[in-house]
């Protein structure tokens, strides 16, 4: 069985977990903290980042979350997530990159640093100026998602795609860390609450990262 | 004809240009500086980053360099660059991400900030401590490429792939900015000099970015 090296608040591991679950691929969770990755982990992935998916029987290690998603898209027919014409597929991949890079860099990464790494590793208080800036940038990203949902059923078009999984993964980590103010984002909230009720999403919402507690609305389905 | 929005030292635009040229796809260069992107450009790409490829006749805009490369891999049969079994393709995509994210973040991005943005926009001297750190990290990346070339003909396996284009694109920008010390990296140097002589690479090597001059060896084929 595949081993997924991850930690509960890794948004890229969450994206991969959503994909594996939607496609019905089984895996075991192996915990790997980003601040003290093991030698074994570095040997599996010279980039030193989660997620890594490893099949011990075949000695096959996959890393980089987009490469992992493309691999399962190519090898498992169920629940296609990079689908349609070449332009549709380019739009899906554009949005995945937007959430993986821009949303992550603007919102998720600073929240993880201030509210996870400082608390669990550095033993420092969070910098409220950086938190405010991340929450402000989150509004801009949610505005863009609102606009997408005004114009499309799902983020990249008529069907659910990897773009939805990538966005939900980033938003869920940001929401866990108290970085999402849902006021004024009815479209995104509606899309996200449909997502939260999916069987693929439920296990993620029930996990906790040590002493860090999410806000009360985090795992509720109707909020 | 496709318009490629780029600037001469954008490593992601260079990767796309190498791919388009290998595949025989024509395009026009449109200059877009990252520090003062036009409204027209933001409308084409909400992520605000080069490269963007735009077809005015079809009003089709493609952005994110990996999404662009996948699009042409799917639509143009010539010179396949994400080829082989699903595992081979995962290995190609893993390496592309390693160069696009780790090499870029460790080496190319700090060099661009210190030697391009500070010179052309901020009018500040470069920080020599940051330059030394970027060059030190470049050695680590070249060590890894040396190791790949010890074990494979091309970076991801037996044939040239998008991994080679991604690595050459990053290295060429870092080399232009004086960030690559080639001493001790014979394997990488051999691989790179083969690359520099390809028709797809020659136009890149002859371009200059305003007043910034590359070191003398930059465009020479036998160095």
From TrEMBL, chains A, B:
<dbReference type="InterPro" id="IPR010987">
    <property type="entry name" value="Glutathione-S-Trfase_C-like"/>
</dbReference>
<feature type="domain" description="GST N-terminal">
    <location>
        <begin position="1"/>
        <end position="80"/>
    </location>
</feature>
<dbReference type="GO" id="GO:0004364">
    <property type="term" value="F:glutathione transferase activity"/>
</dbReference>
<dbReference type="InterPro" id="IPR036282">
    <property type="entry name" value="Glutathione-S-Trfase_C_sf"/>
</dbReference>
<dbReference type="GO" id="GO:0006749">
    <property type="term" value="P:glutathione metabolic process"/>
</dbReference>
<dbReference type="Pfam" id="PF13417">
    <property type="entry name" value="GST_N_3"/>
</dbReference>
<dbReference type="InterPro" id="IPR036249">
    <property type="entry name" value="Thioredoxin-like_sf"/>
</dbReference>
<dbReference type="InterPro" id="IPR040079">
    <property type="entry name" value="Glutathione_S-Trfase"/>
</dbReference>
<comment type="subunit">
    <text>Homodimer.</text>
</comment>
<protein>
    <submittedName>
        <fullName>Glutathione S-transferase family protein</fullName>
    </submittedName>
</protein>
<dbReference type="InterPro" id="IPR004045">
    <property type="entry name" value="Glutathione_S-Trfase_N"/>
</dbReference>
<keyword id="KW-0808">Transferase</keyword>
<feature type="domain" description="GST C-terminal">
    <location>
        <begin position="85"/>
        <end position="218"/>
    </location>
</feature>
